[in-house]
From TrEMBL, chain A:
Lineage per the UniProt record: Bacteria, Bacillati, Bacillota, Bacilli, Lactobacillales
A GO molecular function held by the record: ATP hydrolysis activity
The keyword Membrane is assigned to this record: yes
Membrane topology (UniProt): Peripheral membrane protein
Protein name: Oligopeptide transport ATP-binding protein
SUPFAM superfamilies with a match to the protein in the record: P-loop containing nucleoside triphosphate hydrolases
Species the sequence originates in: Liquorilactobacillus ghanensis DSM 18630
UniProtKB/TrEMBL annotation, chain B:
Protein name: Oligopeptide transport ATP-binding protein
Species assigned in the record: Liquorilactobacillus ghanensis DSM 18630
GO cellular component: plasma membrane
UniProt xrefs under CDD domains: ABC_NikE_OppD_transporters
Keyword Phosphoprotein attached: no
Predominant cellular place of this UniProt entry's protein: membrane
Length: 348, 317
């Protein structure tokens, strides 16, 4: 049995705004297994960043955790004080932010920025900390590290800065690494390098990763498991193959269908926009944009239906009484691939 | 592209330098040439700093080109001086910007944003005609005509980009430069905007210069593609050909880095590493654009032509 390192249960988070309570996270549960990469995919406003900020204890002041728990080694992170969280943050659970241009301190030498967590958490003296900082700089592939350790952030390119951000996050060998769109601000060639680096380091450091992104291409290359979020809920989750080759939720279909592959000739957009979370719809939140929506979708929220031991989707289409629908061509193509892949594994 | 099609825009040896003569001189665009035919979409791809945005901005004369010619409908527009000339030219050419949050004035109503071009060019005879035009434009881009008296903050990113498109269409241009029009939008909204641009092109016979770093999207919308790197155009050709059989090593490396939403493909993916020294100028072997096979151009020296010819031949086989 795989060890669960992080267990998020029934999380609900509201944001207080002048317009009212924004129900940003609406009953989200997921877990992270040891050594795996879990990708959380969704559009902006779907709640993927808020979820991870709650794990880190970095929610904004106007956020309120309505209910739920985040278990890390059987302790509820939501019940920890800020002081206790400071001892976990950066040491056991570390985070890589989206924008390498703003997540470094422009007035500090990068050596000092990398050494800081070591001095704080591992109580190393400055010399030892800088020694280790140097090693991790080499590990993340910064050339000429002995010289570069005394440089300031503006002396590095975007890709190198993101390597430094990764070095800071990994310097204490955290058990959990949360990467919030770590490559979105980078060019594709640099992105490919950073993703390779993360995969490489994951096997060396044995960290478990929560990878947040809206880019399904990146997910396909990075994730072991995938959770798809929409309007503050997880609507489907499964292994990377299950989500990409055997998707069941119409939103997942829509996402896969609206991305151009290098061979696609036609794009199918998802019509409309996500619902307003000030007043979330009472049924399936995707119903209004869903060409396969049924009457029940507008009235009752679908529960998770089991597709396999590892694969669940919250759509009424999986109910035994639901009519059979034919998904878009691109999805049918993926389903066929999935069947073929499974047949092959059975033969072997 | 077939030869009998009319060239709408010709860019000839365009150079755009900044801080000329100073130690921090930047050669953002360094001697590039390409043509855009009427009715086509020309995609310009490259990484940040490659000069693709500068190229677009030079064409529409937001910068004064350092050297080179920009010929639009047979007229050199790089030397325009009088306001009258500019007015005439900008009615033909419009731009859609990257950031739908920064490109709409937050203190103006939608109808005034969209009608700005109409006012400048005196295209409406009366207030009533003006609002009719605006309402029609909003409907064309998939917005509601009741939206016209709202302010930008009341709209989502995708809707704002539609407003930007309506503003560009207001003066009935022939040519639109779209500079990363979808990169600030969510995946599901990106497809909506790209499809809208495609539909508009069909209905109104527009010509686009589509600038983006997202290669898969550029390939999807473009007829032909130009690949830029370090201010230079390295390869030009029909979109599908360039994607499936890139000739220049840089293009190949760029395409190999694009993540594909297909786990099996990703597991097998090998990124091609590119050695940028290949592009270095060698006075003995000057590099320029050569037509390798009809319609496909690569920036190379005379000696390299056979190498690329062989590659192109292999791709056809």
């Amino acid at each position: 049995m795989t060890e669960r390192i992080l267990d998020v249960k029934n999380l609900r988070i509201d944001f207080h705004t002048y317009a009212g309570e924004v129900k940003a996270i609406r009953d989200v549960s997921f877990h992270l297994n040891k050594g795996e990469t879990l990708a959380i995919v969704g559009e902006s406003g779907s709640g993927k960043s808020v979820t991870t900020k709650s794990i880190m204890g970095l929610l904004a002041n106007n956020a309120k955790v309505v209910s739920g728990s985040i278990l890390y080694h059987d302790q509820d992170l939501l019940k920890k004080s800020e002081k206790e969280m400071q001892n976990i943050r950066g040491k056991d659970i570390a985070m890589i932010f989206q924008d390498p241009m703003t997540s470094l301190d422009p007035t500090m030498k990068i050596g000092q920025q990398i050494a800081e967590p070591l001095i704080k958490h591992k109580h190393l003296d400055k010399k030892k900390a800088w020694q280790q900082a140097l090693e991790i700089m080499k590990l993340v592939g910064i050339n000429d590290a002995e010289k570069r350790i005394n440089n300031y952030p503006h002396q590095f390119s975007g890709g190198q800065r993101q390597r430094i951000v990764i070095a800071i996050a990994l310097v204490c060998y955290p058990e959990v690494l949360i990467a919030d769109e770590p490559t979105t601000a980078l060019d594709v060639t640099i992105q490919a390098q950073i993703l390779d680096l993360m995969k490489d380091l994951q096997s060396k450091i044995e960290t478990s990763i929560i990878f947040i992104t809206h880019d399904l291409g990146v997910v396909a290359g990075m994730a072991d498991r995938v959770a798809v979020m929409y309007a503050g809920e997880i609507i489907e989750y499964g292994t990377v193959d299950e989500i990409f080759y055997n998707p069941q939720h119409p939103y997942t279909w829509g996402l896969l269908n609206s991305m151009p592959t290098l061979s696609s000739t036609k794009l199918e957009a998802i019509p409309g926009t996500p619902p307003d979370l000030l007043d979330p719809p009472k049924g399936d939140p995707f119903a209004a944009r869903n060409p396969f929506a049924m009457k029940i979708d507008a009235e009752q929220k679908p529960p998770f239906f089991k597709v396999s031991e590892t694969h669940y989707a919250a759509t009424w289409l999986l109910h035994p009484n639901a009519p059979k629908v034919t998904p878009p061509d691109e999805i049918v193509r993926r389903w066929q691939l999935y069947r073929k892949m499974n047949n092959q594994t059975q033969v072997h | 592209m077939t030869g009998n099609q009319k060239k709408l825009l010709e860019v000839k040896h365009l150079k755009q330098y900044f801080n000329v003569g100073k130690p921090n001189e930047v050669r953002a665009v360094d001697d590039i040439s390409f043509d855009i035919y009427e009715g086509e979409t020309f995609g310009l791809v490259g990484e940040s700093g490659s000069g693709k945005t500068t190229t677009g901005r030079s064409i529409i004369h937001l910068y004064k080109p350092t050297a080179g010619k920009i010929i639009f409908e047979g007229e050199d527009i790089s030397q325009l001086k009088t306001r009258k000339d500019f007015l005439k030219f900008r009615r033909q050419m419009q731009m859609i910007f990257q950031d739908p949050y920064a490109s709409l004035n937050p203190r103006m109503k939608i109808k005034d944003i969209v009608a700005e071009g109409i006012d400048i060019h005196h295209l409406a005879k009366s207030d009533q005609e003006r609002s009719e035009i605006v309402e029609n434009l909003l409907e064309t881009v998939g917005l509601n005509k009741d939206h016209s008296s709202r302010y930008p903050h009341e709209f989502s990113g995708g809707q704002r980009q539609r407003i930007g498109i309506a503003r560009a269409l207001a003066v009935k241009p022939k040519f639109i430069i779209a500079d990363e029009p979808i990169s600030a939008l969510d995946v599901s909204i990106q497809a909506q905007v790209v499809n809208l641009l495609k539909d508009l092109q069909e209905q109104q016979g527009l010509t686009y210069l589509f600038i983006a770093h997202d290669l898969s999207m550029v390939k999807y919308i473009s007829d032909r593609i130009g690949v830029m790197h370090y201010g230079r155009l390295l390869e030009v050709g029909p979109a599908d050909d360039v994607y499936e059989h890139p000739l220049h090593d840089y293009t190949a490396s760029l395409i190999s880095a694009v993540p594909v939403p297909d786990p099996e493909f990703e597991r097998k993916r090998r990124q091609i590493v590119y050695d940028a020294s290949e592009e270095k100028d060698d006075p003995a072997h000057p590099k320029k654009m050569h037509e390798i096979v009809p319609g496909r151009f690569v920036r190379c020296s005379e000696d390299e032509i056979p190498k690329y010819r062989a590659r192109a031949k292999k791709a056809l086989a």
